[in-house]
Amino acid sequence: MVFAILKINASDKLLPNITLGFKLYDSCYSEGRSLRGATRILSGEKNGVPNFNCNKDHMPLAIIGDMLSKASVPLARILGLYRYPQISYAAGLPLLSDKIEFPSFLRTTYSIDYESFVIAQLVKYFNWTWVGLICSDNDLGTSGAQLLTREIEKNGGCIAFQEALPIFPSIKSIYRIIGVIEKSRATVIILCCTIENLVSLMEQISFHNISEKVWMGTTGWSTSDFPRRDILTTLNGSLGLAVQTGKIPGFREFLYSIHPSIFLDDPFMKTFWENAFHCVWPENDVYNYTSQGLLDDGSVWCTGEERLDSIDVNIYDVYNFKYTYNVHNAVFAVAHALHQMNNCVPGKGPFKNGSCAQVHNHQPRQLLHYIKKVVFNNTAGDQIYFDENGDVPIYVDILNWQLFPNGSNQYVHIGIYDASSPKGQELKIWLNKILWYGGYSHVPVSVCSDPCPKGYRRAALQGQKTCWFDCLPCSDGEILNPNDDTECLKCPEDKWPDSRKEKCLPKLMQFLSYEESLGYALACISILFCLLTFSVFCLFLVKQKTPIVKANNRELSYLLLISLMFGFLCPLTFIGRPNQITCMIRQVMFAVIFSLCVSALLAKTINVIMIFSATNPDSKLKKLVGLRIPIYIVPGCTIIQIILCIVWLTTAAPFAEFNMAAEIGIIVIECNEGSRVLFACVLGYMGLLATISLSVAFLARKLPDTFNETKFITFSMLVFASVWVTFIPAYLSTKGKQTVAVEIFAILSSSAGFLVCIFSPKCYMILLHPEMNSKQYITGRNVRN
């Protein structure tokens, strides 16, 4: 305050030609002393007389103080009656913001309610969900505990325990609190109390060696100097809030320049000097600098030649201050208000009829009006003003207690809370500056239940606080709600959770493609069998005049081989990404080709029967030989299948669709068969043809002939029937692209069965035993038979 007044008096711009003075009263943390000081100020007498002003000429213009809320409240009640300006630099009681009850009270600090909010934000920032709370057993402590509990619980945290610290030390109560601390899992404990309440508790906590706790304090004690090293050791690594520590240019030099010869009327200078240098002033002459030597008790005489800059900065700290910045702002607020009052233009003033107040003769309420309206930039460049409640903008420093090996401690500035910052950016923490208990750099954990793993939601336990919970996994297709870890969200139908169930990713598109090994292998097999069939066809063309090729209708053999070639190529339409065209072609092509194959086999079988009947004079079928019925069986049976397919395609054709449910986390691109009834009719008709062909071939298998092809047709139809009967359960038990692979395998297997069973014996005789492929050999065999 003295420094600020000297600066103002030395300024040519602020209150020129006006000199400010001051009166200093020490309330000694006592409401009674604070009231006595106020009475002296208001009455102008050492022994104050209430309601009388005995020395108007020496009335202070405003009161800067008190520091504590408990002393500021009674002071503000009296000063409010007279609208006498009062600016406190440390009183944080929320009640003091009530301008009806305290109309003349202002402060350059913030309401303690905001401390609860800032502490709750710190607890949330460090993910502490299980914290202890110890508050003073008074109105301020109780209201602060209630507000702090509400803010912490609003952010998802819980209070592990809440204890009241007696105003007057009680060893029984302290032991009870220590027992609660030792049993609790909470590693973070918030202390909402003042230094005088806290010392006795911290002494016992140090004695019980309670370590590995993070103590978090309010401005009531977080920057206090504790008398014992063991308390400092216990508090090492703790966090605390402090009022803003702004820059005051020139203040450090001013503190180093202090000397008893400069401040002759300062009653505290003598005591300060003796404590700072551990010396004693001669009682008969405080400033007798020539006195030298030791006193009887070993003390040293003060000479006045001691230098303040030689004192350890931990003892005489000229860098960090508790409320100095707020005091500086309070004094300058009064000075700027007086300056505006002094510059008032008559007729344009703020009072009745535009009148102005005289800076040397005004009412307290008039200065109070100017102080409430004042807006200025202090020496640090920060804008200072008071809101409608008499409070300044919220700006809180966050400190970290750090103890050094030499026994000194330091409050390291590790963050700020600036309410004027954009929303969500008010809190700023520099983690690399923090030193936790034990010298660790990682953030301690203070939770009731361990955090749930990724992909698990919190499930509250009945009858317990929200911080007690079980972890339940999110169901398939769900992710953890990023805004609420107690519930899971279902992914959209076309998306699926990642492995950690944190976000929904697009599902993989699955179909049997040529790029993958299975599709590539099936395509190669299909082409190889097609080429093999084509080779057999070429062989038959070359040997078309031989008896084996001519046996049982050479044209039907050609038709069957051509059908098989297309049958082996049919799986190629099943491989690749399904679309509208391939879905319509592949099943129709499969049905028509196999109907053609089976009807050709049926015609060959009937042809064998009719040829045998022609050689039997007693056969009733002999009359049908001339009708050439086998020629009409193939087109007739195939046309019926073609008609069914046309009806199917025109009424409810197959189409490509995205199957979300076939496989978990995968979108299967497949063909929907459209009308399942018509599809069943197409397959049923093909099955009917196969059944008739198998039955006829089975009955004709023992007919006497040199080369009875019905035996091989029977084997081929048995293979065909076996493959497709086995196909049904395999088809139903697979999903996705495996279903398509199973159908392709069935097509290739049944087609290969036809090729091997019917044509391999003929190729064997043509290629390896050409002597058997002659009319003479066949005729000879007939004779022998």
From TrEMBL:
It holds the Pfam family 7tm_3. The lineage of its organism: Eukaryota, Metazoa, Chordata, Craniata, Vertebrata. The keyword Lyase does not apply. It is a multi-pass membrane protein. The keyword Oxidoreductase does not apply. It is found in: Cell membrane. CDD domains: 7tmC_V2R_pheromone (cd15283), PBP1_pheromone_receptor (cd06365). Keywords: Cell membrane, G-protein coupled receptor, Glycoprotein, Membrane, Receptor, Signal, Transducer, Transmembrane, Transmembrane helix. One of its GO terms (molecular function) is G protein-coupled receptor activity. GO terms for cellular component: plasma membrane. This is Extracellular calcium-sensing receptor-like. The chain crosses the membrane at residues 518-542, 558-576, 588-612, 632-656, 676-700, 712-732, 744-767. InterPro entries: ANF_lig-bd_rcpt (IPR001828), GPCR_3 (IPR000337), GPCR_3_9-Cys_dom (IPR011500), GPCR_3_9-Cys_sf (IPR038550), GPCR_3_C (IPR017978), GPCR_3_Ca_sens_rcpt-rel (IPR000068), GPCR_3_CS (IPR017979), GPCR_3_vmron_rcpt_2 (IPR004073). Residues 518-782 form the G-protein coupled receptors family 3 profile domain.
